[in-house]
Amino acid sequence: MEKRNLYLNNIPAEEAVEIYRKALKESVDVSYERIPVTEALNRVTRSAVYAKYCSPLYNSAAMDGVAVRADITNHASEREAVELVIGENCRLIDTGDPVRPPYNAVIMAEDLVETTDPDRFRILASAAPWQHVRPIGEDIVAGEMILPGGHRIRPVDIGVLLAGGILQVEVIRRPQVAVIPTGSEIIEPGREPREGEIIESNSRMFENLVTEQEGLPHRLPPVPDDYGLLRQTVLKAVREHDMVLVNAGSSAGTEDYTVHVLRELGQVIVHGVAVKPGKPVILAVVEGKPVIGLPGYPVSAFIGFQNFVIPVMDLYLDRDRQPAGCAEAVLSRRLISSLKYKEYVRVKMGKVDEKLIAAPLARGAGAAMSLVRADGFCIIGQNREGVEAGETVEVELFRSLSEIEHTVMVIGSHDLLLDVLADLMPSLHPHMFLSSTHVGSMGGLMALRRGEAHVAPVHLLDQKTGIYNISYLEELFHEPVLLVKGVKRIQGLIVKKGNPRNIKEIRDLPGLRYVNRQRGAGTRILFDYLLSENGLVPEEIEGYTYEASTHMAVAALVSSDGADAGMGIQSAAKAMDLDFLPIGAEEYDFALYPKSLELPHIQAFLDVLQSREFRMKLEELGGYDTSGIGEQILIHGLC
Amino acid sequence: MEKRNLYLNNIPAEEAVEIYRKALKESVDVSYERIPVTEALNRVTRSAVYAKYCSPLYNSAAMDGVAVRADITNHASEREAVELVIGENCRLIDTGDPVRPPYNAVIMAEDLVETTDPDRFRILASAAPWQHVRPIGEDIVAGEMILPGGHRIRPVDIGVLLAGGILQVEVIRRPQVAVIPTGSEIIEPGREPREGEIIESNSRMFENLVTEQEGLPHRLPPVPDDYGLLRQTVLKAVREHDMVLVNAGSSAGTEDYTVHVLRELGQVIVHGVAVKPGKPVILAVVEGKPVIGLPGYPVSAFIGFQNFVIPVMDLYLDRDRQPAGCAEAVLSRRLISSLKYKEYVRVKMGKVDEKLIAAPLARGAGAAMSLVRADGFCIIGQNREGVEAGETVEVELFRSLSEIEHTVMVIGSHDLLLDVLADLMPSLHPHMFLSSTHVGSMGGLMALRRGEAHVAPVHLLDQKTGIYNISYLEELFHEPVLLVKGVKRIQGLIVKKGNPRNIKEIRDLPGLRYVNRQRGAGTRILFDYLLSENGLVPEEIEGYTYEASTHMAVAALVSSDGADAGMGIQSAAKAMDLDFLPIGAEEYDFALYPKSLELPHIQAFLDVLQSREFRMKLEELGGYDTSGIGEQILIHGLC
C-alpha cells in the first residue's frame, strides 16, 4: 500500500501565518508601477503626490455678476447709488472667469439694480476688495501635497490629481497569483461528468477571491496526478507569478504529491494547521515565492484562503485591513447651519484625551481638497440650525477608525514641513499618521487648550523680548506644557521673480499691493512688529486686510499678480519660483501637553522630527536651520 | 445682460429623490442579461438557480482507506480480527473515489493493521454500513435551488454553481451611464492650462464613482457652451445609454443652457435642492431616461452624485444598499469544539422574539452549499471547548442585518415547495426573505418552542386517528399555537426508472435495499405506520438505519443505485427522473405562534402561500393538492 502522508503540524492559524510571513520576509516585497491617474481607482500611492498647478489657476469669480475695482464703490449706499457701466468701470463676469487687474472684486448679479440701459447698473452698497473672488490656489496650491504615500485612491482623489496637473501616479503593483487545480479525476465545467469524475470548481472560486482581494489571478489548466508534471507546472508558475496556489481537488493522493513536490522544489514551512475545517494546508516557499497548498473540500479551501492567502497578499499590497464605517465624535467647533439645507460638513477626525474629535474643514463647494483631506462627513439635518461645540455628532468615516486613532492631530501655524512630516510618519512608523489643519499660531494654541489637538506648531514673537513662543505659552497656559524646539526658518518678503518693483525692505511697501496673513498667524505678528519698528501703520499698506491663510497661498497670489509682495517663508517662494528677501530667522516650535508623550503616535512624531530623513528633506526645501531640533522646554513645570 | 436662471426649487434631498424616482417609475426598469458563471462576480441573479447535477455525483469515499461490504466485518473485534484481502473482499480507495456495489462502507487507512503481505490487512472493529461514505447529493442535490433570485454572486457561489453544472446565469444588467462635461473654458488634462482655462476633472471623478457603484461609465468629450451642440449631445447620449450625467464645469452660463436644453428635450422634475453644498442640481427625464445635471464645483458634484445619481442607479440595479458586518447573536444549539482547532461554524441567522438567533449549519468541509446557505461565520477560538446553547456569540455576517431581520425562519420538515417560497418571497414582497433549515417535523416543532424558528413545517400522522399534525401540536404545546394549512402531497415509494425490482407495495421491501429518513421526519413516521400496518418490523428492512435527510437525497440515492427504494414525495422522484408508486396523500402544514402574525415578513409569507404564482409553480412540480391552503386552525386558543 502506498505511503500516506501524515500532517506534521497542528499549529494555531495565527502562529502559522506569523511563521510563514517571517519566512517570506526576505524575498517578498512590495513593488511599484507607474500608471495613468485615470486608471488608478483603488490603487495605493507609493509616495506623496504634489500638485503641479494651482486650482483655481488664477483669481476667479466665485459668482456671476460684474468685476469692479473695489475703491470706486467706496461711497455707494442706499441714498447715494454708484453707477456702473459695462466696458467703462466694470465688466460682466461669470463664475469661474478670471478677475484681472485693475478689477479686484465681484458684485453679484442679484445686487445690481437694472436701468433702462442694459449696459448700466446701479449699486447701493460698497464692495470690499476681493469679495466673491476665489484667489489663485484657494483649493490646491502648486507644490502642495495632494495625497500622502500609502493612500488608497478614490474617485475624488482622481479628480483632484488631474485638476492639480498630475497625469500619472506610482502605485503598488498587484500580485499575480497562479491558481493550479490538480487531480486526475477532475474535469472542466461544461462536460457531463461520469461516475468517478468531479467538476473542477474550486479554482474558479479562488480566481474570484483573488480578484476581490485586488490580486491578478491566473488560472492554469488542471494538472493530473503525475508527480513530474505537477513539479514542472509548479516551478513554471512560480517563475512567472508572484505567488502560487495549488489546489488538491478532492483527489486521490494528490495532496501527498503536492507536499513532496514542494519539499523538493523549496521549503515547506507549515503543513497542517489547527483550523476546522481547513486543517490540511501547506505553506511553502519556492525560489523565494509563496506557494500555498489548499485542501480540496470547498469549505476548507475557502477558509484556507481567508486565513493564509490573504495575509500573504497583504505583504505584496502593503495593506492594513481596516474597514471604514461610522463613528460618534465630539464636534470641536460650533457649526451654524441653515434650516433651508441638509448640510454636508467635511471633518478632520482625531482622538485626543480618549475623546474622538471632529473638526470641521473648509465649507466651500469649490474646495475639492477638503474632500481629499477630510476623514469623514458630518451631516447636519435640514431641520437643525446647527450643532454646538462639544455636542456629539455622527460621522460617516472615509478612513478607518484605527487609522484615525493613531493620527497626531496638528493644529496651528502652517509650514510645508508639516506635509513632509505627514508623508514620513507612516513610512518610518507603520500605521502612525499625522494630519494638520492650518489656523495660525494662536488658533493652534486655543485648539490645544480645548483638547482638539495633540500638537500646536507656533512661531509667536514676543515683541518686548524678541524671544519666540515661550512667553505666549507662559501666559496662555496655567498647567505644565511642553515646547519642543522645531526649526529656525527664514522669514522674508516674497516678491515677483526679478523683483520688478525693486523692493528692499518693509519701508518700500506703501504704494504697492501687499497680501497679509490672517489674524493670529505668527507671520502677521512679525509683520506688525516690523511695521511699528519701521514707523509705519497698517492704513499705509494697501491689502493689509487682504488675508491669505497659508504661506503657499501668499506665494501663489504674488505669482499671479494678485499682489506685489507678501511676507512668508523661503520654501514657499522657491516652490512658486519667486524671489525672496530675507528679513530674519524665526523659531517654529511645537507646543504639546506632557501627558501626550505617552501616546505611541506622539513618540513616533518626535522620532520623525529628529530623523535623518526629515533633515535631508528640509535641506532640499531650503531656508531651514535644524540645529537643536527636538529639545524640550517644560513650562509651568513647578505648578 | 443675459437672463440668469434662478433655482425654482429648494426641495429637501429625500423628497427630491422620491419625486424623481416616482417620475422615472414608468420608464426605468431592471433588465437582464445572460453571462458565463465565471464572469458573474458581484452580479445579481434574476431568478432562482437550480442545480443540474448532484455533488458528489456518486457515493464517494470520505477518507483514504479500503472499501468493504459492511456485513463481512460484523464480527471483527480486538480479540477476533477479520482479514481483508485487496481484490478479494475489499479494494483500495482514496478520498473522492466512487464507492460501488457490492461495497457500502469505507475503513480508514489508520484503522488497517498491516501484515507481511502488502495486500492483506486485519481490522479489529466492525464497520457500520455507509460509514465514511459521502452519499450522492450530500452537498448539492440535482434540482435543488442553489441561489435564490436577487442574490449577489460571491466567489463561493461561482464555485457551487459550476459544481452544480451551471455554466451561464441570468443577471441584472448594469446601467450604462454617459458623463458629459460641458464648458468652453475647460481643457483636457495633459495640456498646460492658460489663464481662464480649467482642467476638466469632474467627469473623471464621475466615471470612477459610476464604476464603484457597478455601473458602466462612458465619458464623452467636453462640450463647449453652445446650446445646439449641447442639445444634440444630450439627445444622442440619452438614446445610447441608460442614464446621462451633465456636468456644468465651473463654467459661465453653462448651467443655464443645461436646464433650458433639458426643458426643451424633456421634463425637468427638480431644479435646486436643499443640500449644501450641492444646491444647483437638475433632475430631468428625457425620452423616459434620467438625465441629471450636476454642479461644477467638485464638492457639490460629489455630494450631488451621492444623493441623486446613486438612488437612480439603484432603480436599474434593483438594489438595497445595506452593508454586512458583525453582529451578536444567541446560539440556538450547543456547539462542541475541539481545543485543537479554531473552528469556523457556518450559521443561519434570524430574528425571533426580538432576539437575533444563530443556528449552526452542517459542519463538514465538503458541504459547499453550507457556505452558500450560511448567513455568517461563528468563529470558535482554539482555546474554547465549545459554546452553550443560549450563549451570545459574535457572528461575521455574509448578509446585511436588515435582510436577516426581515427573514422568515423556517425550521422543520423538508419539501421542495420551501425553495419555491424562498424564491417567490422577495419578488412578491420586496425586502422580505425566507430561509429554511431541514431537521424533520419534530425537530421543527422543538425549534419553534425554543424560539429559534418563526414557522415549523410539519406532516406528522397520528397513528391512532389518521389525522395529521393537530394532535402533535396539542400535546407538545401548552399555549396557543396556530396551524396554517399547507398542501396535501402524495407520498409514495421512489424507485428506479422502469421499476426494475417490480416493487408494488410496502410488503415487497424485505430483501431489497431501502433508504430511510432521519428520526422525527414525518415520512419516517408514515413509513413506521405502514410497516406495522403490513405486519413488518424494522429489522426486516435492509437500510432502515441508513438515513437521508431530505426527499431529494433519498431520490438521489435511489438514482445512483445506493438503494432500491425510499419513501418520499412525487416531485423529488420527478426531479431525478425516477418512478413513483403513490401510497397516499399526507398533509404538509405550517405551525407558528399567533403573535408572529404581527410581523410583516410573516404576513408576506402567508400572502405568498395563497398567491396565484405559488399555486402555478406547485402545479408545474406536480404531486400537490392546494385546496384549503392558508386556512388557520388555532390550537389551545382558550387557554
UniProtKB/TrEMBL annotation, chains A, B:
Taxonomic superkingdom: Bacteria
Cofactor(s) demanded: Mg(2+)
Keyword flag Nucleotide-binding: no
Lineage, broadest ranks: Bacteria, Bacillati, Bacillota, Clostridia, Lachnospirales
SMART domains recorded: MoCF_biosynth (SM00852)
Family in the record: Belongs to the MoeA family.
PANTHER family named among the record's database cross-references: MOLYBDOPTERIN BIOSYNTHESIS PROTEIN, MOLYBDOPTERIN MOLYBDENUMTRANSFERASE
Keywords for the protein's UniProt record, in alphabetical order: Magnesium, Metal-binding, Molybdenum, Molybdenum cofactor biosynthesis, Transferase
One cellular-component annotation, GO: cytosol
Record's protein name: Molybdopterin molybdenumtransferase
Keyword Metal-binding: yes
Residue ranges constituting the MoaB/Mog domain according to the UniProt record: 178-316
Pfam family, one: MoCF_biosynth
Species annotation: Diplocloster agilis
One Gene Ontology term from the biological process aspect of the record: Mo-molybdopterin cofactor biosynthetic process
Pathway(s) of this molecule: Cofactor biosynthesis; molybdopterin biosynthesis
Catalytic activity reported: adenylyl-molybdopterin + molybdate = Mo-molybdopterin + AMP + H(+)
Entry's EC annotation: 2.10.1.1
InterPro entries xrefs: MoaB/Mog-like_dom_sf, MoaB/Mog_dom, MoCF_biosynth_CS, MoeA-like, MoeA_C_domain_IV, MoeA_C_domain_IV_sf, MoeA_linker/N, MoeA_linker/N_sf
Molecular function in Gene Ontology: metal ion binding; molybdopterin molybdotransferase activity
Record function comment: May be involved in the biosynthesis of molybdopterin. Catalyzes the insertion of molybdate into adenylated molybdopterin with the concomitant release of AMP.
